[in-house]
Amino acid sequence: MSENSGLVFDDVMPERYIMNMDESKHEVALSTNDLKVYYGDNLALQDADLKFERFKITSLIGASGSGKSTFLRSLNRMNDDVATVKGNIMYRGIDINSKAVDVYEMRKHIGMVFQRPNPFAKSIYENITFALKQHGIKNKAVLAERVETSLKQAALWDEVKDDLYKSALELSGGQQQRLVIARAVAMQPDILLLDEPASALDPISTSKIEDTLLELKDKYTIIIVTHNMQQAARISDYTAFFHLGQVIEYDQTRKIFTRPKVQRTIDYVNGNFG
Ligand SMILES: Nc1ncnc2c1ncn2[C@@H]1O[C@H](COP(=O)(O)OP(=O)(O)OP(=O)(O)O)[C@@H](O)[C@H]1O
User: Fold this and answer.
1) Labelling 109: which of 76, 82, 134, 262 has CA 20 to 30 A away?
2) pLDDT in tens, 179-236
């Protein structure tokens, strides 16, 4: 079939396409193998086999209810109490979906930021140091250094450095979300999971969060759920498109947005949701 027929690839178009990440060229920070999530009898996610490259940003996109948050939350065992998660989640050679894994310890390596900023009703300083102290870091100089470094990494330091003992609840929504990101990076995780971190924010705060994530990817592997396709296109290296509890297409972001291989992805990125 010729490229000019308007029906290019129609006869060979796959129903799903998951790129094969070459592990000799791309370091894989986290991978899932045959992940399935059930809420009671309802199979909300299936066939999720994805590899996430280290120091890259991967976006998870798809319509409401397609399973993006279910997938993301499974990656640091947030679904344990509400769902049955089957399959493997491999991190540094360990299946972190195994019951034997210490979830508390694992979350030091795989941090999570939620949609709504959720700072503690404590000072900015204490928001950052709280979990560190719980993990046994008591040295004041070490704590002060972590506060400064993580606030700088989250691009909030300049705005709050003279007000570290002010209540975090007095910050704007966008500042609170950057504080929550600082709180997560203060634990020095490898992987940062973010569930629509900018959806409740204005465009300027959103842009600051995006800049922050682009800075952070030098040190962290980032996986982000977003409904904002421009955002996915702007910040992510890879994109996974979810539909009805399945990953339909996973590829480099520029390919997903310019030359997707699956018709459903073409329809979604073009705004034809019918
Ligand atoms: N705690 C829960 N209990 C029961 N069913 C759930 C629960 N959380 C999600 N589901 C169901 O699982 C499916 C996938 O939901 P999920 O929240 O993962 O989708 P999503 O793509 O993240 O949607 P959104 O973009 O609206 O957040 C939906 O059918 C949803 O109703």
Assistant:
1) 82
2) 999 999 999 999 999 999 988 888 888 898 899 999 999 999 999 999 999 999 999 9
**How many angstroms does the Cα of residue 159 sit away from the middle of ligand 1?**
36
pTM for this structure?
Answer: 0.92
Q: What is the pLDDT of residues 133-152, one digit of tens each?
A: 998 999 999 999 999 999 99
Domains parsed from the chain with CATH numbers: 3-263 (3.40.50.300)
Integer Cα distance of 51 and 30 in angstroms? 6
- Specify the amino acid at residue 90: M
Closest C-alpha among 258, 261, 235 to residue 20: 261
What is the distance between the terminal CA atoms of the chain, rounded to a whole angstrom?
Answer: 27
The minimum-distance atom of ligand 1 relative to the CA of 82 is: 1
103 close to ligand 1 (CB < 6 Angstrom) = no
